[in-house]
Amino acid sequence: MSFLWLKIGVGIVFVLLSTAGILYALGHDITDASLDHFEITDIKDITTESFVLEASLFVNNPSDISIPIKKVEYTISLKDTGEEIGSGTIDPFTLEKNTITEIPFEQKINWVPTTQLLAQWATQEHVYMIVNGTVTLDVQALEGYELPFNEQVDIKEYTDQFIEEFISVPVVTDVGEEQQDTDLVPAL
Questions:
Q1: H-type helices in 28-141, by residue range?
Q2: The model scores a pTM over 0.85
Q3: Do residues 90 and 38 lie in contact, with contact meaning Cβ atoms separated by under 8 Å?
Q4: Mean pLDDT of all residues in 160-180
């Protein structure tokens, strides 16, 4: 009877070790998953009180197995001021194996730059936004494992778009006449 239990025990250990070996062989580089890059695809619906950011995270999964993702949490801040202007969470999805997966998202930002900041941006060659966050894996063996990311993105073309749409300054052409100039003249 004890010999039978020994066979069963050895069999169970063999199955567990074999399964662990197979999982290791397939997914040993699962922790090498990383943010490949962050891309703004559009800034739209610009108003004097908010705008909508359309963007995509591109996450690289070099593993031979697909990785379920529990969530992505992120914050968006301005490099110049350090001011956090938005944050959000992306719902669960799966990173396909041996590829870079695009994760598109949209975020409404309820924020308006000050006139002083707009004037500063108008004279700068680059304006940077920083996206910080974590990708949390939904893998039981790696419970709570997070892939941090930090990307700096130049948003100069979008700040120029905002300035052109919402900032125009009256230009006096003759005494008593005013005309709205469409060229950028920062209001201070």
A1: 115-123
A2: no
A3: no
A4: 58
Count of CB atoms situated within 10 Å of the CB of 163: 19
Task: Name the DSSP letter for residue 32.
Answer: G
Which CATH code fits 41-169+180-188? 2.60.40.10
Which value, to the nearest 10 degrees, does the dihedral of the CA atoms of residues 50, 55, 59, 65 take? 100
CB distance 61 to 103 below 8 Å: no
pLDDT tens digit sequence for 5-23:
666 656 665 555 544 444 4
Domain locations along the chain: 41-169+180-188
**In sequence order, what are the residues at sequence separation of 6 or more whose Cβ sits closer than 8 angstroms to the Cβ of residue 157?**
none
Separation of alpha carbons 32 and 61, rounded Å: 7
- If residue 13 lies in a helix (H) or strand (E), which one and from where to where? helix 2-27
Whether residue 59 contacts residue 33, with contact meaning beta carbons closer than 8 Å, is answered with yes
C-alpha to C-alpha distances, 3 to 8, 9, 11, 13, 183, nearest whole angstrom: 9, 10, 12, 15, 90
Report pLDDT digits (tens) over 73-85.
999 999 988 999 9
Residue 178 is which amino acid? E
Strands (DSSP E) along the chain, which ranges? Answer: 34-44, 51-61, 67-78, 84-90, 93-95, 99-109, 128-137, 146-154, 170-172, 178-180
